[in-house]
Write a sequence for this structure.
């Protein structure tokens, strides 16, 4: 049987750069980890997430670092001994007992070295020297020549997490280290070297396809593979080739569904490699979900579709983009993955897109998505840059794709492989063409040839798509509304969020709007006195080009320019929430054409003003609540249709939605001016159903003082005839009461006046507290109860209006 010995304790770290004063000769090292986290633990650097400390740590990525370990071993004749590194970041030389055993150039691969003849009985000395990624990048640029890159650093010239070198939401913290587990494996006769597992449906049956390869000692014994799942087992002999391929059919298994449609039953799969006497030599286990998936890109009357079809059901993807959850990925635990995915699920997100400028996440991420019913769109790791297709990069790409496709393909949650992020778009529209001369590679061969061939060979049951955005062919510009998947970035960069309505994409895989992190997160990470949008720390934690200017420009026509830091913070967070809710409701109302809205972005890797819904401390921004409302499987929204208004019911549930729909046009003081009631509006499953509003509802007498309210069961939608800056919102009046609950407190607010987008900013009182709802609009006399999870106690006087309890009314003069 294979024996595995983890090599995680006893490591030390040292710097080979003698010009760095003040560093001890050796530093305790944690594995898995990285240089930055070890220096932080030893209190040798300031926390790069605080204030402007990032810039004081820039030297770390330019140095050479050495990890050292002495470990005991007992070499045994007849057994193969291998050192296995699940992840090395990135340019490394490995030596055992002073002898070089290998060099690595790829953060995204697993490396295995046979050390059978090099191990000593007793103590062995292992060193891993990490060379500067900057220095390696300079060497590669000499070899390849310049390739356009939308962000600093040589991330496109090596296989390393590109956002390490800085992004418009992330710091420049160029890491090095043993970022995944390392171990010594000992085996005799044979072991599994590659186990490819895919599961799908064939009619009512579940089908598991297994392709296994083994490594065997010369003249090793014959082997067999035994696989079992769902009460079905099969044994197959391994031939002379060292490979075996077979299928297991599980009759009528329970089906895995995205969480808004059904359950997520998972079946344990066990594969054992046995010798001719039945003794187990190696094993492999996974939890498998049975489902089918395809990507419909067929031509239609609107252009060509881009629709994910899961278990033969065409879905609308309510999604968000996922970036690395920490600049130092080894700090992200299985529990943190699960908590983040639970937060996405609670926001009614059913798809996370793992973005191509980051990493292939660890197994725990995909396992948590399997359990949660969270669909995963997985980018291959190419983003916002042109990439050489020559050696040695080409072979590294092929090796990393093989490693990660094989590793991730068993997961039911994974529904698509995507070739790149914005690179085809960049070549087409970002001015790369004049720089990339004829015959110079820039990555297209990866997206249209290498990657689809590897996916077809390794994982034929899952769709592959060349890029995001991409229109399905190089003959049509890559960001065309009518074809493929689209990114919308003129909104935010150049124009206001009202322009979202100019687009009806087939599938929008990126769109977003910025806002600062929550107040508690800002205060924890920035210590400027006073805090202002332009103070050094706040400004440093804004990485987007002219980001603060765009925040203010984006308020134009919607909200007044704020005068205070408190108002700046609330107004920009509120504007972010409104922008994304506006876009999602618009796209979902056109469900017959558009089949996905994937917000940029869900999470943050450090405390920063960004497009995220959940800040780096895991606190929900107002955007999180806007997404929860706009992604509700049953949505009621009011949308323009020509010169009319329509109430649109959108139903992503498995049952039809039939209910009374009613509405009214009212003055802001609550006076009803016109009303209607329709006894039964029927919205079938997976449908958007429009109900045209009569002119007396849709036409105002005094646009600045009126609102349309439409209700269908517990769903309510509002329509305003003018924006807040022109709306006669009254000075807010309300009554507040507080009562204790089993896990916190309830805060009930009763409106004395019309209150628009009421928010309880609980982190102002308790940074650890979580409130269940936000962005609540109340007519005079109506009440709403906010439920707060907290260990603290509060009184009504603690819920101060204009600080803890805020609404849009506060922002108007």
């Amino acid at each position: 049987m294979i024996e595995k010995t983890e090599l995680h304790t006893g490591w030390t770290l040292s710097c080979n750069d003698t010009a760095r004063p003040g560093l001890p000769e050796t530093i305790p090292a944690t594995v898995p980890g990285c240089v930055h986290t070890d220096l932080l633990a030893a209190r040798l650097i300031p926390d790069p997430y605080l204030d402007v400390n990032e810039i004081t740590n820039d030297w770390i990525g330019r140095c050479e670092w050495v990890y050292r370990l002495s470990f005991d071993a007992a070499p045994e004749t007849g057994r193969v001994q291998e050192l296995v590194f699940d992840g090395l970041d990135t340019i490394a030389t490995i030596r055992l007992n002073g002898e070089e055993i290998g060099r690595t150039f790829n953060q995204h691969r697993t490396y295995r070295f046979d050390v059978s003849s090099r191990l000593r009985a007793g103590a062995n000395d292992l060193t891993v020297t990490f060379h500067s990624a900057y220095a390696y990048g300079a060497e590669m640029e000499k070899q390849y020549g310049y390739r356009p890159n939308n962000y600093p650093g040589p991330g496109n010239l090596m296989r390393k997490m590109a956002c390490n070198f800085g992004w418009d939401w992330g710091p420049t913290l160029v890491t090095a280290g043993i970022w995944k587990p390392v171990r010594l494996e000992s085996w005799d006769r044979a072991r599994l070297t590659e186990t490819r597992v895919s599961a799908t449906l064939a009619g009512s049956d579940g089908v598991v396809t297994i392709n296994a390869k083994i490594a065997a000692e010369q003249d090793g014994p014959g082997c067999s593979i035994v696989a079992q799942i769902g009460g079905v087992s099969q044994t197959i002999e391994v031939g002379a080739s060292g490979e075996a391929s077979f299928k297991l059919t599980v009759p009528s298994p329970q089906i895995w569904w995205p969480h808004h449609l059904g359950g997520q039953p998972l079946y344990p799969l066990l594969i054992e490699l046995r010798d001719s006497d039945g003794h187990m030599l190696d094993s492999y286990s996974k939890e498998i979900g049975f489902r089918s998936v395809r990507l419909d890109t067929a031509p239609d009357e609107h252009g060509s579709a881009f629709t994910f079809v899961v278990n033969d059901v065409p879905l609308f993807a309510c999604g968000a983009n996922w970036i690395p959850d920490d600049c130092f990925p080894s700090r992200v635990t299985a529990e943190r993955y699960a908590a983040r995915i639970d937060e996405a699920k609670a926001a009614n997100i059913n798809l996370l897109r793992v973005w191509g400028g980051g990493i292939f996440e660890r197994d725990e991420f995909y396992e948590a998505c399997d359990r949660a019913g969270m669909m995963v769109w997985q980018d291959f790791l190419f983003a916002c840059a042109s990439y050489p297709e020559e050696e040695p990069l080409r072979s590294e790409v092929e090796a990393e794709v093989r490693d990660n496709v094989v590793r991730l393909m068993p997961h039911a949650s994974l529904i698509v492989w995507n070739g790149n992020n914005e690179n085809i778009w960049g070549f087409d529209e970002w001015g790369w063409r004049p720089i990339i001369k004829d015959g110079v590679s820039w990555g297209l061969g990866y997206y249209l040839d290498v990657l689809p061939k590897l996916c077809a060979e390794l994982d034929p049951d899952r769709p592959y798509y060349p890029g995001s955005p991409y229109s399905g062919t190089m003959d049509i510009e890559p960001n065309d509304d009518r074809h493929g998947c689209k990114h919308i970035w003129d909104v935010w960069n150049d124009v206001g969020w009202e322009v979202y309505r100019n687009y009806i994409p087939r599938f929008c895989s990126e769109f977003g709007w910025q806002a600062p992190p929550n107040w508690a997160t800002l205060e924890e990470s920035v210590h400027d006195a006073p805090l202002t949008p332009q103070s050094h720390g706040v400004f440093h934690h804004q990485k987007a080009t002219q980001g603060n200017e765009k925040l203010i420009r984006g308020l134009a026509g919607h909200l007044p320019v704020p005068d205070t830091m408190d108002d700046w913070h609330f107004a920009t967070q509120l504007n972010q929430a409104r922008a994304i809710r506006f876009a999602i409701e618009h796209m979902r109302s056109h469900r017959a054409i558009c089949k996905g809205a994937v917000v940029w972005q869900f999470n943050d890797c450090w405390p920063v003003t960004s497009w995220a819904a959940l800040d780096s401390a895991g606190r929900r921004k107002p955007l999180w609540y806007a997404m929860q409302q706009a992604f509700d499987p049953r949505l009621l929204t009011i949308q323009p249709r020509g010169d009319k208004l329509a109430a649109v019911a959108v139903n992503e549930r498995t049952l039809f939605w039939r209910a009374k729909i009613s509405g009214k046009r009212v003055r802001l003081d609550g006076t009803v001016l016109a009303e209607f009631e329709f006894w039964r509006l029927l919205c079938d499953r997976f449908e958007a159903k429009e109900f045209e509003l009569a002119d007396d509802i849709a036409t105002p007498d005094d646009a600045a003082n009126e609102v349309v309210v439409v209700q269908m069961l517990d769903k309510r939608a509002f329509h305003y005839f003018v924006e807040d800056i022109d709306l006669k919102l009254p000075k807010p009046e309300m009554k507040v009461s507080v009562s204790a609950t089993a896990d916190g407190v309830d805060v009930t607010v009763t409106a004395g006046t019309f209150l628009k987008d009421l928010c309880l900013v609980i982190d102002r009182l308790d940074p650890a507290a979580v409130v269940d709802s936000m962005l609540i609009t109340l007519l005079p006399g109506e009440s709403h109860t906010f439920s707060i999870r907290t260990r603290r106690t509060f009184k009504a006087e603690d819920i101060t209006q204009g600080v803890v309890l805020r609404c849009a009314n506060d922002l108007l003069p």
User: Anything to note?
Assistant: The radius of gyration is 28 Å. The chain has 14 helices and 44 strands. The CA atoms of residues 30 and 797 lie 47 Å apart. The mean pLDDT is 96.
